[in-house]
Design a protein that fits this description.
The chain is an alpha+beta fold. 66% of the residues lie in helices and 9% in strands. It is built from ten helices and six strands.
Length: 463
Amino acid sequence: MKHPHSTPLALAALVAASTLTLSACAHRADSLYDTRPFLRYGERPDFTLPADPEDPGSTEILEGLDAMLPVLLERSPSVAAARERYRAMVESVPMATELPELMFEYSWLPMPHETRLGLMQAVPFPTKLVARDSAARAEARAAAIAYDAAVRDQIVSLSVAYADLYYAERALTIISENKSIAEAISQLGATRSAEGEGVLFDVTRARAQLAQLEYDKITISERRDVARAKVNAALSRPVDAPLAVEALPFTPVTIDEQELYDLALLHQQELAMLDESISAAESHVDLADSGWLPNLTFGAQLMIQAPPAPAQSNESVMVTFGLGIPVSLHATAAAQASAEARLSAAVLDKQAALDALPAHVREALFQERNAARLEVLYDEELLPRAKAAMQTAEQQAQADSMAYGDLLEARAAYYSFALARERALADHFQSVLRLESLIGATLTDSLPAPSDAPLETPTQDTL
């Protein structure tokens, strides 16, 4: 009786399976490269190209931060990458307890004619499977928290850039208003100087202020372009895609330092990730401790004889059992020491984070309070007084040419305070964002800013 050899068939099946797997991988890669060819190795995107008219996300005018946040979550590659890393960790959890491949054995003995078919399965010691499963689940939970942290960081980064864009837009408005006033003042001074009523030095000062305003306009315009590029980059849009800014919200922080610290202990993503890192490290220690335990092997063989022995069946079954005894004692001990060192490092990382957290909370709270104080100071004290001083100086300059220099000083002071007020508002908004990022939670609902109305400056007609 002949028994055909099955190896060619098995090899053909293996080659077919490998071909299908490689084809599927190539299909996924080609699909990605078809839509984004610049992702190929060595390729680079052309950032000089205009916005793609077929991509509504690159041409749509986004008005305000609330309209940008959904686009961020939808288009940001950083958010998508963090989500995919989280998905990869979740998908890897079942692999941690996956048994080694089931081995199939085929043997043929020519003398005597005997064919053997066998199955063999290696099984790690149960404590190893439990430890691997615990470590994989802890790492998956850490990946989920890392995804939340990545979303948080992208939102904060976008919001900080948006605040800079808001400041630049408001500053350009202030510069335009003050430039009109400064030109009127300069013209008034030149006229009076020509009539012999003014002071030539004051006219020179007025022209110097105009030059400074022109310089500020150029600088702030470039800063606005940088901020717009940062916002669009966060949204995965062309750097010059259209944007429209709205008033920044005012979010006063009313809770004290201890409450902020308690919130950070409960909600900060970094602390939660460190906890999961410790949990995973503990599981790896258990896994290393299990290295002294043997792996198990179970098997069965079917033996077929041809021709069969007289008065006997030509088939018999053999069951096997084996133990994988650790031979390299040094390697097992080294694995234990390495796992314990990693656990110690994870614990110390958390200790370092806890030690630094109170100082970080205090610093962030100081920045928020200082920015809030400046904002209130400019709104309630400095700007109203500077406005009143400029109006008084304007009236005096109408009656007395010698008061022309006071008008120049008053306008310069009001201009500086107006810019500083907008910077304080943007700084306060950014400081609240950083504080919320530090504690991992939202502090308060947004309130309207104290004052976002156009600045009331004297007009050219009154000069």
